[in-house]
Amino acid sequence: MSAGVHPAWLGSAVLGDDVVLTRDPRCGLGAEAYTIARSGGVTTVVAEDEAGLMYGSFHALRLQDDLEAQTHRPFVARRMMQHWDNVFVHPVMGQVERGYSGGSLFWEDGALTDDPDRVGDYARLLASVGINSVSLNNVNVHAGEARLLTDRIGEVAVLAARFRQYHIRVYLSVSFAAPMLVGGLDTADPADERVQAWWATATQRVYAAIPDFGGYIVKADSEGQPGPFAYGRTHAEGANLLAAALAPFGGEVYWRAFVYNHRQDWRDRTTDRARAAYDHFTPLDGEFAPNVILQVKHGPIDFQPREPVSPVLLSMPATRLAVEFQATQEYTGQQRHVCYLPPMWSAVLSTVADRVDAVVTVSNAGDDRYWTNHPLAQANLYAAGRLAWDPTLDPTALLDEWIARTFPPAAAGTVHELMRDSWAVYERYTSPLGVGFMVHPGDHYGPDVDGYEYSRWGTYHFADRDGVGVDRTTATGTGYTAQYPEPLASQYESRATCPDELLLFFHHVPYTHVLHSGVTVIQHIYDTHFAGAEAVSEMVSRWSDLPPSAVGEDLHARVSDRLREQHRSALEWRDQINTYFYRKSGIPDTKARRIY
Amino acid sequence: MSAGVHPAWLGSAVLGDDVVLTRDPRCGLGAEAYTIARSGGVTTVVAEDEAGLMYGSFHALRLQDDLEAQTHRPFVARRMMQHWDNVFVHPVMGQVERGYSGGSLFWEDGALTDDPDRVGDYARLLASVGINSVSLNNVNVHAGEARLLTDRIGEVAVLAARFRQYHIRVYLSVSFAAPMLVGGLDTADPADERVQAWWATATQRVYAAIPDFGGYIVKADSEGQPGPFAYGRTHAEGANLLAAALAPFGGEVYWRAFVYNHRQDWRDRTTDRARAAYDHFTPLDGEFAPNVILQVKHGPIDFQPREPVSPVLLSMPATRLAVEFQATQEYTGQQRHVCYLPPMWSAVLSTVADRVDAVVTVSNAGDDRYWTNHPLAQANLYAAGRLAWDPTLDPTALLDEWIARTFPPAAAGTVHELMRDSWAVYERYTSPLGVGFMVHPGDHYGPDVDGYEYSRWGTYHFADRDGVGVDRTTATGTGYTAQYPEPLASQYESRATCPDELLLFFHHVPYTHVLHSGVTVIQHIYDTHFAGAEAVSEMVSRWSDLPPSAVGEDLHARVSDRLREQHRSALEWRDQINTYFYRKSGIPDTKARRIY
Fold this sequence. Notes:
Two copies of one chain form a homodimer. The first copy, chain A, is α/β, with parallel strands linked by helices. Helix content of chain A is 34%, strand content 13%. In chain A, helix 10 packs across helix 11.
């Protein structure tokens, strides 16, 4: 392929005469990889396959300066965006579960979208950042959505055709009870031959419609979804049932490890939700079929602003693993707050990148005109793909890369300053020191310190008049620290070595406990909450100092509106958290600031 | 009228030859009154009007022994049951707002009920206990329901015909914005002549359809409902607008005094929701038209298990007043808990009966086969009517009267024991010492101690590590106590004289404060919560000791089921409240019982 061409995957972008693309099946670079160089004003891209040429072309588009020849190849072969879209509007969760960007890109009120061009734009957007697989529907599979697998597979094929243009394979979330829900059987037992036959036939039909179909995502025995426990089978037996059906076609099962008791009694101090995934799955290490990938949330609880890495990701050497991130900001401001998440993801990947076969991100995109409601939340979508391709990329450099491709130079500095530390800012004004939750039950937006404290969800902070935090030590607590390999087990076990930012995740300490930072826990709570809210106040000012013309009136107004809400919410967080802990501890702020 | 007759209002009941009814227009007893006597096996009833004869006949039905001639006349002429029924199912509140007894008796999914016989049965039920007026729809008037006043008045006429048979007049809740919602005007300003003309014409049409129509119920400027504040008019001007339209026909306006700021900031300690009704309405005393009745909830907040009497009821001598009770158990167990409320109502009436022109009760009946979901909740409906007729009746005697008319003698003792102190039991295991709320937000069922603590609803307890309660004193608090006449103002102002059961409503006190009962506040909390849950446990045993045949299998099973839920809920209340206050106070239970 030569200069001046315009392959479909470039969309409206054009590579000029100064770009030379060469596909060389014998170059030995491997799938999806490419070599790129720029010299004397000419960029050359060489790749073994069409996908590599595409990724190299997108790289060429962002290249500014001369470049010695570099070869780029993806760190993991599976870089997936997962959607929690419902086909039918769910009475509580809406069209997209935990979606904050309008409706679904794929379905609307029970029917396939009538805007397939928009799907094509989205596919190109994903491909341009390195995503090569996408699952189309919510992991909570309701009865209507279960039919995507069977009589509605034609709609999936329509979407698959769009994504195929960009070398993206599609996957479906399926219900483990599909043989009953849509198959007319009276069981979904993996040991039942009728069930096995049903999955084999159903899968065969899927591949007849979509020959390059990727496979299934399964949330089983989790938060009310059906699973193998109902039949006394293990999750390996459950996953292998579906894997057997997919294997003849090269398909794979992403089996979620998010299994815990969601009907816990708050009075029961012996059960620790953080332990659940490890306790359920590590005994099964080695028992999963080769085309099963165990999909593990990056932390042991549920996408809180700060969690330790899940020990499951460090403890199953004989199992293929995926790490799951959440770009949709369920617990991190719901795309009304600026919260640039790659620093968090990058830290996780630095620990687990060489242990995983796949990086999965829950999408934050919808049919919103900016894709992500908060225009600045696009950066999370962008970086999710780029980090899956190369986990060693620096988050701040990625931010600047996104900014350079999105905003004019006059706005770059403002956007950079607004976003760079925004995750740290968000953490400061929300739940302190890794303790998590303290959000409003149900919608998970805004503060409610005791909102989950007496609930069945296993997410407690145990604050009393003397102290706060969850004792997960092996010495005196739930023993969760023992799930980690050394040196992490020892590091987390001891208050002396546990990082400040995770202290309350692992330890119940007095408010007067002195952190490594030199201040007490209670003073840290006050200081960070005043500082976090103040930082948002500065973000508001900074943005309002930017002339609207620098980014466009509409975008400027959109961001202003969201920043106002972030500021209101940050003040609410600050005051509720500070008041709550002042009322409990009785310890005044050393700086005598206003606590209500 | 003579013996052996069978007027329509008796339904399937029959008065035998031993009952002699005499209507004597010249007997001078007055409207609705009757004289009853029984001697030598013959009961005689004399009344001036047909209604009096009806009430006397129902009395004859419950008469067992000989009786010297007694004259009975209602204490107040207006004894109303109000329904919070929606015509259309509301997405959050359902067919009946705060309804716990199935669907509406009047409307189903947007249409008039197709079971008018059931309405007739209900009307007879109400008449038999002395109710003579009923409002048919929710005080929160949505757009669909607003049309009852206009093009759907024919449906109201159908219902009115049913109620008329039992001398019950019907009323409608109307929207203050009706001239805009259904009248096509661009204002609802009471000073606008077009608005006045619209109400006059609309009301004329109502009376053309229903000549004995009762009048309007209005919730204005309250929890989002429209009202005169939007036009800078007072509530007297608003109420008098509707009163003028009704006056030519003898109709009346029930204008609710439930007006407060429902968007309060929890940080604002100067605003006190308890003050709101008094602050809004007492300056208007004397300004309301003669056919306006100001309808006042019996307590200053909102139907909590324990509140002081509303000072509005004691402070508006030049205004006609109605006291409002709530039979539907929004905050008192939602007809899953046994909670016999007449002891509460009786105590209120002992203070306000001679100051009110009307007694209003929010109905707890629905299309449930037992009318009230919990079969024992019927007693609240029964006693609501009987107390409105005669506020001096003893609540326990009323309970036994209801039991005797409902259950066979073999069950009477058990039911009596289960119910007599059930309000006190409920109070023991829920929020302590009059502080109120601590319920789960939204549905108001079950405990959530901080559920409303940082909300906009103005319902706070201010618990910290040292103490709990709301300082409403004049000396150091919100000044609410000054809204009471003496001696109540002084009694509530002082901790020394404030009744224990209202202590935390009026005072913020240390957990170590010693009550008149001799125990500290914290120990009182522990003691009452253990005792309350234990009492429910005994209720469960007591009921299971009753042979199902004594009351019928179905009813026995229904009550058993509800008692199980009450027991589960009482344990949850006990443990959440005790744990919450133990964590805050750090003070152990002197009896070393289990606190989590």
